[in-house]
Amino acid sequence: MIPVRDDLRALDGYHSAQVEVDVRLNTNESPFPPPDGFRDALASELSRVDWNRYPDRSAHALRADIADLHGVDPTQVFVANGSNEVLQTVLLAYAGPGRTVATFEPTYQMHAQIARVTGASVVEGERGADFTLDPAEVERVLAGAAPDVVFLTSPNNPTGLVEPRERVEQLLASAPGLVVVDEAYAQFSDWTALDLVDDSRPLVVTRTFSKTWSMAGARLGYLVGPTWLVSELDKVVLPYHLDVVKQLAGRIALRFSTEMNERVATLVSERDRISDALSALPIDVFDSGANFILFRPRDVDGRTVWQQLVDRSVLVRDCSSWPRLDNCLRVTVGTPDENTRFLSALTAIVNDDT
Description:
By secondary structure, the chain is α/β, with parallel strands linked by helices. The protein is about 35% helix and about 15% strand. The chain has helices spanning about 35-45, 60-70, 80-95, 110-115, 135-145, 165-175, 225-235, 245-255, 255-280, 300-310, 335-350, and strands at about 25, 75-80, 100-105, 120-125, 150-155, 180, 205-210, 220-225, 285, 290-295, 315-320, 330.
C-alpha cells in the first residue's frame, strides 16, 4: 500500500450520517423541490444538447445570468461544482504551501479541511461562548498570523450567527490578504456582503444553488469578486470542469426567483416557529439567520437525544463531539409537517415521555 501524503495522514473526510428515516433534517438542504416549470424547462433544453461537444469552458451564459441577478459584471463571477469547488479553486490560487489561512471557530469545517489539502497552514481564531466574534480576537489573529486568506461565514455554519457588517469591514481594513465571505445561507439573512465587492477590495463572496434554489443534487456554486481575482482562477481550475447540465440548470433556476423568494419566506417563518418552540423547552437555542438552528439540551446528553430522535425516525446533525460544540445538535428547517414531527419527538425526549 502506498502511503498518503504526510500532511494528510491525520485528516478525516467530510462525513454526515446517512440513516434511513422518515424525517431527514441534518444536511441543510431545501425541503422543497424545484418548481415543476423548472423540471419541464430543463428537460426541454436537455433534448437539444449536443452531447458529443464539450460544454462552454467558461460558462459565459451562466455567469452573465448570475451577474445580472446581482448587478455586477460577468467578469466578476466564477462558477464551479458546488461552493466547495469554488473555495478549493480560490485556495489553490491564493493559499497552498508556505501560505496561511485563518478561520474563526466553530465554523464550516471544509474551510480548514480544503486549506490543509491544498498544503496551506491553518490558524484558528476563537469565538466567544455565545459564538460571536470579538473584534480584538480578529485583530489578534490578523496581527499574529498575517494570513494570506481569511474566511468568514455569514450566516455561520453550524451556529447560524449572522456576522455584522462591521466585522467584514474590519477584516477588509486589517487583513493583509484575501477575505472570503461564505454566504451559502445568505438568502435567509437580513444583509449581504455583496455590495462591498469591487475591484479595489480583496474580497470575494461565495454562494450556492444547493439551498434556496433547491438544487443540492446539481452541485453548483459561484463567487462574486474582483475581476483581477476571477481571471487568476483560470490558472488552477480544470478545463471543462462545469458540465452542460449544470450550466443549463443554473440558468433555468434563475428564471424562478419569485418561487425561490416564496420558499425562503416559508422557511424563515418555520425557523422562527421552531426557535420559539425550542425556547420553551429546557434547551439553549442559538439565534440563526440561516435555514437551520443550533441547540443544546440542558439536562440530557446531546448524543443520547440524537439517537432517541433517530429511534423516532427523525434525523438531525449531531455536533456534540465537535470542538467547542459540546452537547450541541443542529436541525435543518424542513416542511411544516416535518418540523412539527421533530418538535413533537424532541419534546417527548426532553420531558422523558415514553
